Every structure is written in structure tokens, then in C-alpha cells.
Amino acid sequence: NKIIVIGMGYVGLPTAAIMADAGFDVHGVDVNPATLQVLNAGGCPIGEPEVTRIVTDALASGRLRASDTPVNGDVFIICVPTPITHDKRADVSIVRSAARTLAKYVKKGDLVILESTSPVGTTEHTVGEELAAQGFDIREDLDLCYCPERVFPGSTISEIVENDRIIGGLTPRAAARASAFYARFCSGGRLETTATIAEFSKLMENTYRDVNIALANVFGHIAETAGIDVNDAIALANRHPRVNVHKPGPGVGGHCIPVDPWFLVDGFPEHTGLLRQSRAINDGQPHHLWARVKSAGAPIAKVAILGAAYRGNLDDARDTPAEHLIHALEADGVGYVVHDPYVSNFRMHDGRIVPVGIDLAQTLDGVDGAIIMTDHSEYRGLGPEAFAGMAGKLIADGRNLVDRRALTAAGFTVIPVGA
Ligand code: SAJ
Fold it and tell me: Which residues are in the UDP-glucose/GDP-mannose dehydrogenase C-terminal domain (predicted)?
């Protein structure tokens, strides 16, 4: 069995390596020359240690190769990005062009799988249309499926291998075939359904998380106004057997949660007011935190942003809430420096590169305030010594990590989230 994986990114590359590890002959395809250069030199463009290990092993074994064009195969898997446009519309043009490219290499009887998070109907209408344009009957001649990835950056390999897998076939035959294929390298349950149900359920998962985080953030706003600590209240509410309130924070980042709800809004605008409002609440959190800092009244010319990654202990700054904070600071003419133990310089949506320091004391030296954006373990429990070099005494703790009592006793003003 020869497997062709289109897209050597955060999902496609580890998936390809896991399949090579399971004994398949895998050919990866990517349009990015830098990615291909690293892979062809036997290296891995993703920093996560487990991913690096399995990818470099797969390349060394010869069972994984990569180039800029597909080859003939038996199974084709599309793992390309599905971004949103600047006006929050779903952009499936990369899926379409991947499908158009691979359609020329597909033969009768092949299995074609879309893994990219996609608007409802993409498998049949976008991928299916490109295959039909090559003369295939997409139900009879091929097995076409939607099998969403559920990659959680930081534990990519175990989540690909162990999570339950939704397998949406355009036909029951296609689902059964894909299920047998995933059984070769996935130990979790395999849940066969239709392609559209699979597409919808993937969007539901990430939308559920976004709306729940927005709800937690609203609880945080209420607590701030009422002078209550939201975390104490959440801890108690979560002792109810059917309640799981999420964590309020400084915003929602990453390449999935802030993007995927828009696919439902785009497709079903008349039903998705709640989703739009949740997005607005979560995107507004960095601005909300900055407004709280300003209302503390201390003069601020320069702040240190602690954390560029969108989530703790990751080197991933895609769609980071820190970018929204930077816009808020710039709008007020406030200077900033950024610290992160994992992320080096990162690129904002407007193309600018933001320099990031790794020495915390150096970053804090002489700033008027510090704003914690990421729940890195390095920031947990920080006390007065860590912030001693600051010129001012203001700390906004977007993740409720620092030793608030010790800092307050030492004369710092700590602004938590939701308290
Ligand atoms: N966050 C909060 N409060 C919370 C939980 C998260 O503020 O209670 C923030 C995080 O700090 C982060 C953002 O939300 O900035 C998103 O992080 P996340 O932990 O929700 O997840 P991602 O984006 O890393 O990965 C998600 C996962 N989906 C779900 O948990 C439903 C992952 O399993 C998916 O595979 C991934 O999206 C994807 O690729 O779709």
C-alpha cells in the first residue's frame, strides 16, 4: 500500500511519519521549499521532541519521502490549512487545489481522505468536484471520506494514535475501508458515520470549546465587577456532576479554536449569533485586560509581555492573544518587550516580526508593568524577586499564575483575571 499525504504541516507530517512507522510506504507532498529542504536533509521542521523523533526515524528508514508533487498511490490524504479570510469567510481554496493536484494521480479503486477541518459539505462538494472533473464517479469508482484530525499541539503523537477517530464516508463502503486503514496505526475507537456528520462534529468540538471559554470569560467579568474570585466559584460549580466551566484567560489563540466557529457562522449566519458573540468576547479579552491595567491609574510608557505562545509550554505563537494585546498597546502609544521561554521571534498577521527575549530579568528590566499572557510553567508562582528589576509595580496576570499574596505584600499591584 502506497500512501500519499498532501500537506507536511502540524497534522500531515506527524501523521505521515506514524504511518511510515506502521510499515506503510509514504510519500509526502508540500509546496513550501523550506519544509522540503529540511525533510530531504533528514530533519524535522516541527520542534516537538516526539514528532522530531518519529519523523527523523521515518525519513532514515526510507519509508517516508517528500517532494513538491504527488506520485501514484492507493491512499491519498489531504492535510492542508483551511484558513479564514480577513472578513471571516471560510477559505477552502487550498483544499480545492490539493484535490485538483491529487486527482491527476488517483486511479479507480483508490481511497481519498480529507483530514483538514472544513466547512460542512467540503468533502463532497470541493474535493468531490475536483475528482469528478477527472471523470470519476465519486461514489462508485473511489472511496471518499472525511476523517478529521484531532491534533493537540504538545502531545501530537499520542493524540493521533490514541484518540477516537471519526470516520465519515461518502458511502458506507468508503467508511468501512477507511476504518480498516486507520486501524493499522490508531488504537482508539473508530466511529463510522457520513462525511457531513463528521465535518459538522469536528466544527462542533472546537466551537463548544470557544463558546465555553467565552462563558468562563463572562463569569470573569461578572466576578471582577462584583469583587468575587471567579476561580473559587468555578471550582465549586465544577463539583456538580454535569458542569464543566472552562478557564477564563487573556484570550483564545491557536490555529483552530479562533478559526473553526467562523466556518459555521459563514455557512449558517441565521443560527450563529451565539458563536459570533463568543468570538467577540474571546478576541476582546486582551483588550479587556489592558483596559484593567490602564484603569489602575499608574503611568505606563512600556510594558513587558510575558508569553508569546498561544498556550502554555508550547513554542507555537499562531494566532496568539499576545498579538491582540500588541495592537491595543500600539493604539495607546505604549512600548513593549516580549518574553517567552519557548517561542523565538514570531510573525504577526501584518507581516511584522516581533522580537522575543528568553531572559526574564532582562525583559523586565526597567519596564513600568508586566502582563502575563501565557500559562507557561516558568511563570507559575513567581514572586517579588522575579519582578524586582521593574521600574513600576504593576502586574496583570492573565492566567492567575503569580504569587499574588507575596507580591501584594511587597507593594505590587496585581490585576488578576476574574477577581
Ligand atoms: N483556553 C482558555 N481557557 C480554557 C481552555 C483554553 O482560555 O479553559 C485558551 C488556551 O489558552 C488557548 C486557546 O484557548 O489560547 C485554545 O487552546 P485549546 O487548549 O482549546 O486547544 P488547541 O487550539 O491547542 O487545540 C484544539 C483542541 N480541540 C479541543 O479541545 C476541542 C484539539 O483537540 C484539536 O485537535 C485542535 O484544536 C484542532 O486541531 O482542531
Answer: 304-404
